[in-house]
Design brief:
This protein is mainly alpha-helical and about 260 residues long. It has nine helices and four strands. The protein is globular.
């Protein structure tokens, strides 16, 4: 079975903070600072990566995405699932490229909206942040109900448009990191993911098939065992701690966020 939704979400947060974070803790860098982002951009990217870590499960009618938007998202996930199958096309490197390209496209929409108090906000970026935040909030059970995650998401989208308006780099990068974190998580479970060269799938000879290279052509490094295992919970507890500490430290270094 694939990793649980909430665990995917926190893995996206942790992966983003590890790659994009620049805060220092106890005299040591807690992130690689790959894109030289401001603290506000790092936090905004963490929000997006959290939600983007759920995107590959757009093929599953019981996943968080399906349950986030009532009939619309249910119909979407059923349609994608019927075309791709679960843990099929959407769990591939090609899908990561497609998700990232879509993020670039939406982010590049030349559509500005005037928001009272906040001023002019880039609508494409705000919409993308809002949707990713709503998915992540629901997966982490940060708020209850169907509507409240979207309210939180909308507020986050508008806020990001003010504190981190230059979205050309960090927004697509956050989508890519979050979605890729999902694939890594599923790779570590017994079911694994499709062969990396999908749609060209390489299947092993019968005598070479194993839990690592399965007869279907899927590959796995099942260090976590089945979904929901004690090992998965332990790993995600560590990731949650890391994500929480680095996020708090980064917010403390972002005066543009604290002043709002």
């Amino acid at each position: 079975m694939p990793m649980m939704g909430g665990h995917h979400a926190i893995s996206g947060t942790a992966a983003w903070m590890a790659l994009a974070g620049s805060t220092s803790m106890m005299g040591h860098a807690a992130g690689l600072d790959l894109w030289d982002l401001t603290p506000a951009q790092v936090i905004a990217g963490a929000v997006v990566a959290t939600g983007a870590a759920l995107l590959p499960d757009i093929d599953h009618p019981s996943a968080t995405i399906s349950r986030s938007g009532s009939g619309l998202t249910k119909a979407l996930t059923r349609m994608v699932g019927s075309l791709a199958g679960h843990r099929g096309a959407t769990h591939t490197l090609l899908a990561i490229a497609a998700f990232t390209a879509l993020a670039v496209l939406v982010n590049g929409l030349d559509w500005q909206i005037q928001v009272p108090v906040l001023g002019e906000v880039q609508a494409g970026a705000a919409l993308l942040v809002a949707v990713m935040c709503a998915f992540g909030t629901r997966a982490l059970k940060a708020v209850k109900g169907r509507l409240l995650p979207w309210v939180v998401g909308a507020g986050s989208g508008l806020l990001v448009g003010v504190v981190a308006p230059d979205t050309s780099i960090w927004l697509p990068a956050a989508v890519a990191v979050g979605a890729l974190a999902h694939l890594v998580g599923d790779l570590l479970t017994t079911d694994g993911i499709p062969f990396p060269t999908w749609p060209l799938t390489v299947k092993p000879p019968k005598r070479l098939a194993s839990p690592f290279w399965q007869r279907s052509g899927d590959i796995a490094l099942p260090l976590l065992g089945n979904a929901g295992s004690a090992r998965e919970w332990l790993l995600c507890t560590v990731l949650t701690g890391y994500a929480a500490v680095t996020t708090i430290a980064t917010i403390a270094g972002a005066p543009e966020v604290l002043s709002l």
